[in-house]
Amino acid sequence: MSGWIGVDLDGTLAEYGGWKGPDSIGKPIPAMLNRVLDWLNAGHEVRIFTARASVPEQIPFVVAWCKEHLGRELPVTNVKDFGMVTLYDDRCVQVETNTGRLIE
Predict the structure, then answer these.
(1) Would you say 88 and 4 are in contact if contact means Cβ atoms under 8 Å apart?
(2) Is the pTM of the predicted complex or chain greater than 0.85?
(3) 69-74: Cβ within 8 A, 24+ apart
(4) What 3-state DSSP class applies to 84?
(5) How does pLDDT run across 77-96, given as a tens digit for each residue?
(6) Which helix (H) or strand (E) holds 59?
(7) Counting Cβ atoms within 10 Å, is residue 36 exposed (0-12), middle (13-18) or buried (19+)?
(8) What is the signed CA dihedral for 92, 93, 98, 100, rounded to 10 degrees?
(9) What is the maximal distance between C-alpha atoms in the chain?
(10) What is the pLDDT of residues 35-61, one digit of tens each?
(11) I need a surface site. Which of 25, 64, 87, 94 has the fewest CB within 10 A?
(12) Cβ contacts of residue 97 below 8 Å, gap of 6+?
């Protein structure tokens, strides 16, 4: 796979119980954490895709969380580009390509 995998932070990679401030990020969700580690170990590019990145001052908190729980820093963004191959997010609804039909 070429390109990058986007992974939402709050509620997908980290537990989320409501906003408590930019320096408050929940504990890792084991199933997703292990999935991300597997991708990284296989050489895939993974980026944290989070609304927190819309406030640049919040990005260092996300980077530090990644370093603590993934053992490395990951790029943090809130912007899709043509290199994104998939997105994992707790708020997404998948739509079938070119049809508008929901995949349920």
Answers:
(1) no
(2) yes
(3) 69/28, 69/33, 70/33, 70/36, 70/37, 70/40, 72/40, 74/46, 74/47, 74/48
(4) strand
(5) 999 999 999 999 999 999 99
(6) helix 59-70
(7) buried
(8) -140
(9) 42
(10) 999 999 999 999 999 999 999 999 999
(11) 94
(12) none
Measured CA to CA, the distance from residue 67 to residue 47 in angstroms comes to 13
Q: Locate 67 and state its tokens.
A: 């370093």
Using alpha carbons, select from 95, 6, 3, 4 the residue that is nearest to residue 50: 6
Q: Which residues contact 18 (CB under 8 A, 6 or more apart)?
A: none
Token pair of 51 as six digits: 């609304």
CB proximity list for 29: less than 8 A, separation 6 or greater: 12, 13, 14, 15
Beta bridge pairs of residue 10: 14
In degrees, rounded to 5, the angle at the alpha carbon of residue 46 between the alpha carbons of residues 44 and 49 is: 160
* Tokens representing residue 84 in the block: 């994104």
CA distance 93 to 1: 23
DSSP SS3 for 54: helix
